[in-house]
Write a structure and sequence with these properties.
Layout: E1 7-12, H1 19-30, E2 35-40, E3 45-50, H2 57-66, E4 74-81, H3 86-97, E5 102-107, E6 112-117, H4 124-133, E7 137-140, H5 146-181, H6 191-205, H7 207-218, H8 224-245, H9 253-277, H10 279-287, E8 291-296, E9 299-304, E10 313-316, E11 325-330, E12 333-336, H11 338-341, E13 347-349, E14 354-355, E15 360-361, E16 366-372, H12 378-391, H13 398-426, H14 429-442, H15 446-465, E17 468-470, H16 473-479, E18 484-488, H17 489-493, E19 499-505, H18 511-522, H19 528-539, E20 548-553, E21 557-562, E22 565-570, H20 572-577, H21 584-592, E23 596-602, E24 605-613, H22 620-629, E25 633-637, H23 642-652, E26 656-658, H24 666-675, E27 680-684, H25 690-695, E28 698-702, H26 707-712, E29 715-717, H27 723-758, H28 764-783
Parallel strand pairs: 18-25, 18-27, 25-26, 27-28, 28-29
Antiparallel strand pairs: 1-3, 2-3, 4-6, 4-7, 5-6, 8-9, 8-10, 10-16, 11-14, 11-16, 12-13, 12-15, 17-29, 19-24, 20-21, 21-22, 22-23, 23-24
């Protein structure tokens, strides 16, 4: 007897640390009937062959999870075709989420589905099949790049434009006849000609509505196509029957043809408006040049940017765009980085400064080395973030989604009741039919589905142009609710470039000796203040001594041995906790002036004190004032002592501050504020800010900060100006205002329109025109967000990256 054919599965596994882990997983998998598994710890994957009649993929995944390891989720971006309204996107989302281990969000405005799934349980092919089974088209975005997707949409738009033109030419004579009715001429065109004109509009131009309706009904749902197909078919078939039988009844060919033409016109206007909502991303994509001047074999050659590699040396001439991310090797120039940071003034670039793809070189020539190419540039990262944000779903959309799911069946029910009511109580079949058709064609679920995502698309795109990168729609919605903003002092309120201002020797022989000993200890430290000490030493040509036994105490100081003596360098409070007596009057006077004091000591006592100051950013006071005008309380968080913190807070205009907060305590302080019922925003820039950023309700990372902080943040500010955080909150408020306006328009339109149509107060043609324009008006209202501008900023001189 032949052995059954075995299925194969390549399963990624997370959490393995050694071969023992792999052996344990392999053993547990092979216990299952019909399973042959090998696990590779180097690739973090399990190769599994299994008999599907004895064990399912779900059981294999569960076996790995029960062993104590994880199967990481994978994500896929699907381009969806065939959606016409919010009911379609709700339907697709529903069928995808029925699959095991799948979480899907479908965006009607972008025509994309973002899907997270458990590999092994389902694959991309299963996702595509599920969408197609529901009556729509799907293709993985990996196979369809943005350029190809745009070309596909443009081709569809052109085809629809041709169909609309033909439809309009066939419908105009029917509309002319409708106008003639108001002058007393009942039928300007013979009925057979009306029938002839209306038929191609109904069944050729209108075929898209029949296909869409069939696919939706076959998939167990109903959408806008059902309403249009049902409404126009009722008017057309009634008129065709009257014409064929020669009955003495009015015909409504002009209604069926006009509705299809007007709806198609609305879809064209909607598509044109929707294409503008993604204009920010397209503008960003166009910024990067196609070619670059690269040094090869001793000469400069023009090569495609797509062919460049990390390590290539390239030349940027005056007035050219920088092709990739790099480091300046030689040359001096001012570079316009406004397209990435929103900063209008050119930034000085010289040797060792970073340059970014798509930024514009000024008057000088730069010779640079490529460090980030292709998908690894800052520009590519920004585009990915904006696309992800535009494809995400805001919580405010949930109500509209729930209504969209039941909207069409509800409207069909109203139409049936309208028809029955009018026929029973008026005895006029024709009037009953006309009013039912008006109910069907005025109802519009499209506006409900487009109101939120189109505003999100414009808002996030506009934010990116202003140097504000928003991770998702939820963060954009939450930001406008913040009532308390916690700001880290160093690098956020201040410039983040501390400098030594005072050297006060005590037991040390001179300021130079004090600086030499401090430099020796600080060369092993990663703290921002250590940079100030090392820079001061380099400026004075002082070389460090040899040390051993270096140890850092987070947020307190460092200790090491130089020669036979042990030294401690750190905060006065820490030195005193070690039993070293200090001159409190000296340290206090320096701290009251807003300076940070560090002391150098041995076991016998202090050798001296160093004062370090970090200047307040020129815009910090203005930013704090604007936040306070918005009703947002600002709280400064710092590791400095209370005296220094108070001086900086007063200079910035902040009334509440928390001093002597250790890095590991920042997240706890955020939770304390949240326990008071506050909605907390947090602005930070360092690695030690990441836990606090993750704890905040909305987190902002300064773009000049660490990658860890930017990863933890909901919103990344591409320049180091606190005013940009204020702009982000104002952008959030503006976007939410537009969303609320859109949802109000969508709801009020249907709440008023459907009863008016049911009451016989709307002609079906007018109802069709109103339906066509409702979604256009919502998208157009979202486009008004493109007028949003960041607040005014004081003029400051350009800053050298090397400073």
């Amino acid at each position: 007897m032949a052995e059954p054919a075995l299925n194969q599965m390549d399963l990624p596994i997370e959490g393995m640390t050694c071969t023992a882990c792999a052996t344990r997983i392999e053993k547990n998998l092979n216990k299952l009937p019909g399973v042959q598994a090998t696990v590779n710890v180097a690739t973090d994957r399990a190769q599994i062959r299994f008999d599907a009649s004895q064990v399912s993929p779900r059981e294999l995944v569960e076996a790995v999870q029960k062993t104590g390891y994880g199967v990481p989720l994978q994500t896929a971006e699907l381009a969806i075709s065939g959606m016409t309204c919010a009911s379609c996107s709700a339907r697709i989302e529903k069928v995808l989420n029925r699959l095991p281990g799948v979480t899907a969000h479908v965006n009607l405005a972008t025509e994309r589905a973002h899907v997270a799934f458990t590999p092994g349980l389902v694959g991309v092919d299963d996702l595509v099949h599920q969408v197609e089974k529901a009556g729509y088209g799907a293709q993985e975005m990996g196979e369809l790049d943005s350029t190809a997707d745009k070309a596909r949409r443009q081709a569809i738009f052109h085809q629809d434009l041709v169909r609309f033109t033909v439809s309009a030419l066939l419908t105009l004579p029917l509309l002319a006849q409708m106008a003639g009715m108001f002058t007393g001429h009942m039928e300007l065109l013979p009925r057979w000609l009306q029938w002839l004109l209306a038929t191609p509009v109904q069944f050729w131009i209108g075929a898209r509505f029949y296909r869409g309706a069939w696919n939706a009904l076959r998939g167990g749902s109903a959408n806008m196509d059902v309403l249009v197909a049902l409404g126009t078919s009722m008017a057309y078939l009634f008129s065709a029957t009257v014409t064929a039988l020669g009955l003495a009844q009015h015909v409504y060919f002009e209604a069926s043809a006009s509705i299809i033409t007007l709806v198609l016109m609305g879809k064209l206007l909607e598509a044109r408006a929707k294409s503008k909502t993604s204009g920010a991303i397209e503008a960003l994509m166009k910024l990067q040049p196609k070619t670059a001047h690269v040094e090869q074999d001793g000469e400069v050659k023009e090569v495609e940017v797509a062919a460049m590699k990390a390590g290539d040396v390239f030349i940027v001439r005056p007035g050219e765009s920088i092709p990739v991310d790099g480091i300046v090797l030689s040359g001096i120039s001012g570079v316009d980085e406004s397209m990435l940071t929103g900063e209008s003034l050119p930034q000085l670039k010289e040797a060792n400064a970073k340059v970014f793809a798509a930024t514009l070189n000024g008057q000088g020539m730069l010779r640079c080395k490529a460090v980030g190419v292709g998908s690894h540039t800052a520009l590519a990262h920004i585009i990915r973030l904006v696309e992800a944000a535009q494809g995400s779903k805001a919580p405010i959309q949930r109500l509209a989604d729930r209504i969209s799911g039941i909207f069409v069946p509800f409207v069909v029910g109203i139409a049936v009741l309208t028809f029955a009511g009018w026929w029973v109580f008026s005895g006029d079949f024709t009037q009953a039919l006309v009013n039912a058709v008006a109910v069907l064609v005025i109802a519009c679920p499209c506006a409900l589905g487009l109101g939120t995502p189109t505003a999100i698309m414009v808002g996030t795109g506009r934010g990116a142009q202003a140097g504000i990168l928003i991770k998702n729609a939820e963060a954009l919605e939450r930001a406008q609710k913040i009532n308390t903003l916690v700001v880290d002092k160093t690098g956020t309120l201040t410039e983040g470039r501390p400098a030594v201002t005072d050297l006060i020797p005590v037991a040390a022989q001179s300021p130079q000796e004090l600086l030499k000993l401090a430099t020796t200890l600080e060369q092993g430290s990663e703290h921002p203040l250590s940079r100030a000490v090392l820079d001061e030493a380099a400026k004075k040509g002082i070389q460090p001594l040899e040390m051993r036994g270096f140890r850092a105490e987070a947020g307190k100081g460092v200790t090491a041995a130089i020669g036979d003596e042990s030294y401690w360098l750190g905060s006065p409070a820490w030195l005193e906790s070690l039993g070293i007596p200090l001159d409190r009057e000296t340290t206090a006077s320096l701290q009251r002036s807003g300076k940070t004091v560090i002391g150098l000591a041995t076991r016998t006592g202090p050798l001296g004190y160093m004062a370090i100051a970090d200047r307040l950013r020129p815009t910090s006071r203005q930013a704090i004032a604007r936040l306070q005008e918005m009703g947002i309380e600002v709280v400064m968080l710092t590791g400095d002592n209370a005296a220094t913190a108070k001086a900086i807070a007063l200079e910035a205009g902040i009334s509440q501050f928390m001093a002597e907060v250790m890095p590991q305590e920042k997240a706890a302080k955020i939770k304390e504020l949240q326990a008071q019922g506050r909605l907390i925003g947090m602005v930070g820039d360092g690695i030690n800010d990441a836990p606090a950023l993750a704890s905040a309700d909305v987190s902002f990372a300064i773009g000049t900060g660490s990658d860890v902080a930017m990863e933890a943040a909901d919103i990344t500010l591409m320049n180091s100006d606190l005013l940009t955080a204020v702009d982000a909150i104002e952008l959030s408020k503006s976007t939410l205002t537009k969303i609320k306006q859109n949802l109000f328009f969508a709801f009020i339109y249907n709440i008023l329109g459907i009863p008016l149509a049911a009451a016989g107060m709307l002609n079906p043609v007018i109802a069709g025109a109103a339906m066509a324009m409702s979604s256009v008006s919502v998208v157009t209202n979202s486009l008004l967000l493109r007028r949003w501008r960041p607040g005014p900023k004081p003029v400051t001189p350009p800053i050298s990256k090397g400073e």
